[in-house]
Amino acid sequence: MASTTTFKPLAEAPRDMDQIIAQERASPLPSFNARVAHRLGTALHTRLLTFPAPACIHISTCTTPPHVLYHATTHDGTALDNDFWIARKRASVIRFGASTWRLHVKYNGDEAAFAGKVGGEGKAGEYAIHGGGVPVFVRGCEWPVAVCVVSGLKQWDDHMVVVEELAGVCRALEEEREAMK
């Protein structure tokens, strides 16, 4: 299926912790519900269709069990393995309240150092420090209300596509809110 959207390259993912934290907090949504999750998921899907690599998109609440509000693939070629990555990235975002890219940078991609933090290699298998899991904040809330995960691109691109599309949806919702005043 060909996309009608033109390919737009992703910005480079920051490697400075303060920049990553600022990026995570830069787009608090005015509210969050199934409609907003679908809008974000659709924006991600549309953008990711312009990439040749297949990817999976997942948006769910931070609850256990998760309330899945959006889950889709972009092209043939995704696999069950993508869902395992999604589960691990999601678990990391919820446990640490941070993007998986931030965890990757914090631990310099060192899985053994990360395993020491979470209680050994057995426990480390439940989490991932590979970019693509991003916390979703609502204005006025300190802790994430949801998690958005992309799996399938390079990890820094998984991270940036979520950050960029989340920012776009946040801007659009704010503009709509202002127009209604």
Please tell me about this protein's structure:
- The chain is 47% helix and 12% strand.
- The protein has 181 residues and is of the alpha+beta class.
- The protein has a four-stranded antiparallel beta sheet.
- A hairpin with a 6-residue loop joins strand 1 and strand 2.
- Helix 2 (34-48) packs across helix 7.
- It starts with 16 loop residues before the first helix and ends with a helix.
- The mean pLDDT is 94.
What topology emerges from the helices and strands here?
Layout: H1 17-25, H2 34-48, E1 56-61, E2 68-73, H3 80-96, H4 100-106, H5 111-118, H6 121-124, E3 133-136, E4 146-151, H7 155-179
Antiparallel strand pairs: 1-2, 1-4, 3-4
Helix pairs in contact: 2-7
Defining traits:
single chain, 181 residues, alpha+beta, Beta-Lactamase, 47% helix, PduO/GlcC-like, YBR137W-like
Strand order of the largest sheet: 2-1-4-3
**Number of self-contained structural domains:** 1
Specify the overall morphology. Answer: globular
- CATH domain fold name: Beta-Lactamase
Give the terminus-to-terminus CA distance. Answer: 40 Å
Low-confidence stretches: none
By secondary-structure content and strand pairing, the structural class works out as alpha+beta
At CATH level 2, the architecture is 2-Layer Sandwich
Strand content: 5-15%
Which class in CATH terms?
Answer: Alpha Beta
Instruction: Specify the biggest β-sheet.
Output: 4 strands, antiparallel
Question: Looking at this structure, what is the CATH superfamily?
Answer: Haem-degrading domain
Mean pLDDT across all amino acids: 94
DSSP helical segment count: 7
Radius of gyration, Cα only, in angstroms? 16 Å
Protein name: DUF336-domain-containing protein
GO cellular component, one term: TRC complex
Pfam families: HbpS-like (PF03928)
Organism: Paraphaeosphaeria sporulosa
